[in-house]
Amino acid sequence: MVPAIFGLSGLTLTADERAFFRDADPAGYILFGRNIDSRAQVRKLTDELRAIHGRERLFICIDQEGGRVARMKPPVWASYPSGEAFDRLYEIAPSSAIEAARCNAHALGLDLAEAGITVDCYPSLDVRQPGAHDVIGDRAFGADAMRVAALGRAALDGLARAGVVGCIKHMPGHGRAMADSHKELPTVTATDAELEQDLGAFRRLAHTPIGMTAHVRYTAWDAQNAATLSPFVVEEIIRRRIGFTGLLLTDDLDMQALDGSVPERAARALAAGCDIALNCWAKMDDMVGIAKACPQMPDITAQRLERALSLPNDPAPASWTDLAAKRDTLLALTA
Length: 335
Description:
There is one protein chain. 42% of the residues lie in helices and 13% in strands. It is an alpha/beta fold. α4 (94-114) packs parallel to α5 (145-161). The longest helix has 21 residues, at 94-114. It is globular, with a radius of gyration of 19 Å. 51% of the residues are buried.
């Protein structure tokens, strides 16, 4: 099995994609807006992916946070609030905010489960910092690590109740970045003591089965490399200081924060200690290159992948309408 997650080019699998995926046997797949049209179409697509190797519980992920980060959109699917909405409610009613975040994620998870999606790249545990680039901005659950962790835990619990696994991101913290890592490499010059504030939310949720790195350079830890490509950041900061033992994904390797070819980026990330190379844009040359450049999945990664997908696949029945109504009633307290 190739330790990579690959994207798809369109609404259905091409013959070339199906043949390549059958041969390469990637760890999983990621869906974007270009792969999404109707409820029936998405379910058919994810069923096709499961059929390639006969895996019922397959890693199929998506970025469905709510707010401006949503691949499944109205009018087919409902819109969901951004993290900032729960932050505002927490300011006046912490328990209500936690319950609203749990209901919201449960409802969102029901949409994903119906579509055959097993993993959501959500929640962001980045602690918002004043003056930082708005690439995180309203996606964050707040500017305090304890609050971010409390709301993040509720989101993870809500997804799990729907049978979907959450993924905490972007370790070790994207909240200080002064640039958008989709376009360039942000450099954070905060001291080690200052960066400790960024680790707090991740440390509280270090038991989460899946996490994602940040394409951010932290000069206090590694003046040369983005976290994704830094052995020191991955091993010393993410694995030891945060204590994260789960499946560690890179952020999208196509982002302009990184240099070198995409296959080179994948090989460097895995050599740095990441478990899985995430390649989103379905460029066949890049995917083939990753499959050639990356070693076969080691046992420890296979164990982490299996553990990440071990949630019960038969969650208790729940009403999407009731969950959304309860969330909206609680969020209305801020009006």
